[in-house]
Structure of Catalase:
Amino acid sequence: MTEFKRLTTTTGSPVHDNQNSQTAGQRGPVLLQDFHLIEKLAHFNRERIPERVVHAKGAGAHGVFEVTHDVHHLTKAKFLSEVGKKTPVFIRFSTVAGERGSADTDRDPRGTAIKFYTEDGNYDIVGNNTPVFFIRDPLKFPDFIHTQKRNPQTNLKDPQAIWDFWSLSPEALHQITTLFSNRGTPKGYRHMHMFGSHTFQWISEDGQTVWVKYHFKSEQGIANMRSDEARHMASVDPDFATRDLFEAIDRGQFPAWRLFVQIMPLEDAHSYRFDPFDVTKVWSQKDYPLIPVGRLVLNRNPENYFAEVEQSAFSPANIVPGIGFSPDKMLQGRLFAYADAHRYRVGTNHNALPINQPQSPVHHYQRDGAMRFDGNGGSAINYEPNSANGPKEDGDAKLGNYEVSGAWGSYAYPDDDHYTQAGDLFRLLPPNEQDDLIDNVVNAMRPVTRDVQLRQVEHFKKADIDYGRRVAQGLGLVVEN
């Protein structure tokens, strides 16, 4: 016999009637004293926490990461310490610019946030399905995202704003070329690569440091949609990627990725042909070949979307011993912005939620704040240093060093070559994918004013003369070669 479960309020009081509100007589007005009704309505009004400003719509899954190749000489991170070591993970995939109700197949980068629950705390790799980004200074990020959102007057998407900003920000060209290729509409989350995008640091047991970039290669293979396929899927199944991921895991067809890294000696950063900390650039794999590290498999769906996917919170500031940062300006900005967004959206105690809580012991002196539900430190003292044998710092967790110098100031990146890598990418595409890229750009730029079209075409021409010529021809523009 099924055990009877008594319906209660959130404070545990039994509910007498869950079908009929309390009223003054059979036809009378509803009474304010109906605390069960008030609680239900009040909680319902607050069921939606603010959606993420970016990466609002997403899907997630649990899995495991296993080390397959020895890299302990490069980093002292314990979860990478030996071949065969396994670490539980949670991944949230997302589109970037759209709202929670947007289509999964919109042309957009895809966010890829990976949380490793290591014995030294949580380590987050927060990146995209592209190895580069549109901008390289965090000061421009709010302005960039404003162009991707809705016009403040019409509340409609605004191609004029998008291309006006991009045409005045030539560093975006590499990512634009990626986005308007068929890689901008991947066929679900399983069929795309994942990248850490930024440059990070690995620190070895003896204190040696190297620069590192992360590449997660899909074992399912790359599969993209052409524009017409993506638009059709948006009309018949706007949740295609979310459904595809969930159903694949549900039927035991677990998606997997192989982790590779590129390693750059610290001193190479001073002489490499591109600034290695510029997130609009990639490192040549001929110069720094991919080194295999491990395998990531997603094998379990969430039990509750809100608790596990919507409340999940990631930040590149969440690191473990053996991992460090770089002077990548966009990374430096994200170290603050991500955690701050979670403090606003979910709450100051978001890291105590089960999906975000480390599986290693947590000891600190932070107290109070909204929604503190874990005992709040109990009767333990809440300051340090102290004489009560409270938690103390661990000297072994010291970050790696890198050299900094110069006077205070607002500096631009010294490298203004925004065109070489974008042109290389264009020429790397097969002819049919070049055709799709040109069509996608032309169709996206048709609503834009002529002055912005002309300005953007000049950037395409500098990357590759045929690239610019074909876009201009598609837009009906007459431009000089």
The mean pLDDT is 93. The radius of gyration is 25 Å. The chain has three domains: 1-47, 58-356, 420-475.
